[in-house]
Predict the structure.
Amino acid sequence: MARKTDLLPGTLDMLILKTLTRGALHGYGIAASIKNLSEDVLTVEEGSLYPALQRLLLQGWVRAEWKITETNRRARFYTLTAAGRKQLGHELSQFDQMIAAIGRVLQDA
Amino acid sequence: MARKTDLLPGTLDMLILKTLTRGALHGYGIAASIKNLSEDVLTVEEGSLYPALQRLLLQGWVRAEWKITETNRRARFYTLTAAGRKQLGHELSQFDQMIAAIGRVLQDA
DNA sequence: GCTTTATCCATAGCTTATCTATGGATAGAA
DNA sequence: TTCTATCCATAGATAAGCTATGGATAAAGC
């Protein structure tokens, strides 16, 4: 399909949750953090990010509050909840399991 | 989202192509091979598999011919084409890059 | 001979994740 | 004052994968 994707589908929620373990951040900051840590390999488009944050809010995995940034702007800061931390654990272990399984299929034999 | 997925989305074509590097196989055999090699972690549903094979055929990455199996059944055997082998290379390197990038985001710091 | 199970193909319709394309607003730099 | 970077958000399109079906046959078990 020559899929043109900026992310591995299915990993965005996990990446956001993980990013928030480093402290509360607003949307723009989350995207920037993922982009930087991934060394520009992963790009989170805003049209993916904000719907994802809505999902996470609805699930109760993050909490949001409006604050003022260091750059003097209004922004919604997202914080990981206890449930979110637990969810992250689940997603991480499932991801590891999948990657390991894919690795077994991909290895020569 | 508590996504219920049997695969990491975006990896199915790659898994199929890789499976065919081990020799021609029919659909059922491809699914069985992936399931076995992954130790039952990855399950390819038929509703995912056959549309995927159609995509691969359309792209010219696999070729198909009807044959008789060792168990005496008619089945479509799929073979990797040269273009398919090339495509597999692309997908593998992109996948590796993505996994490495995700790893950087997921690691503690 | 009959039933069951495993093997094999395939499609229609649904769901959902992600992307593209917009639109809007403001702070600070140039 | 113009431009760029920072910030929010949604609508609509695309496409991948799943669920649910439907059909057919070989072989084994009874």
In short: Residues 4-7, 9-10, 12, 45, 47-48, 51-52, 55, 71-74 of chain B lie near DNA strand D (CB under 10 Å from a C1').
